[in-house]
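@channel sequence for tomorrow's demo:
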Amino acid sequence: MEGVAKVASLFVYPIKSCRGISVSQALLTPSGFRWDRNWLIVNYKGRAYTQRVEPKLALIEVELPKDAFLEDWEPTDNSYMVIKAPGMEGLKVSLSKPQEIADGVSVWEWSGSALDEGEEASKWFTNYLGKPSRLVRFNAASETRPVDPEYAPGHTTMFSDLFPFMLISQGSLDALNKLLREPVPISRFRPNIFVDGCEPYAEDLWTEIRINKFTFQGVKLCSRCKIPTINQETGVAGSEPNATLMKFRSDKVLRPNRKQQGKIYFGQNMVWKNTHTEGKGKIIKVGDPIFVLRKVSSAAEAAA
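structure tokens (generated this afternoon):
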């Protein structure tokens, strides 16, 4: 059996809606890659800030210790996440678990408690956004956030929008960029797994794939909000690529016989199926081949 594609890049986004980190390998957990969307910036009511409302979040860079992506690494008292943004001093946030609890944190349909990263982080984000803000961390010891049971019953995620993993192919990005006056980079779409070597939009059809020895289920086409229209280098929004996607990647075009909701699709949401795998080596790496185990025959048949 030959791989149909290869992992070209892997991305982890430690703070929801801030910049991602490109990594050569990523450690799998049932709720997503380790460190992915573990943190969230919230307003005074505990509601999530995202780029939809605060496009300046695109300019916040996040650094983790290099070793944080190795399998056996655990933070010490001297391990920090470093956060940088234009016009701001760098902020260091300890990777040791904070003691404070923030209640009433909400992201989309979920609400619960989270760990509060304290006053210094609060002040930094408040100054940067110009409105009261706090940085909170998902409290995996006390909280779970189930994904939509209609699509992937029994699976959970942290502060991702809907599902723990999102996959896009280089072929799809290239096909889109051929239609755009100004090509866009993959950072506009914020995937976790970026693959190369397959046909454009091949990933629409993948309902089950294997990467390394791990099986992933394609649970639903990823419907896109306005974030792809935000230039991730400047934080400024435009109309593209969504205006172009609407012409050939809308539900009207891809799923003409289904209920129309005016959505556009780009990428495939995924969950990791064999999460009970024993032992070590729960890692996927750049260069790993991708084997398609099951697929549907057209995007109209895919869940969305």
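heads up for whoever presents: The chain has a mean pLDDT of 96.
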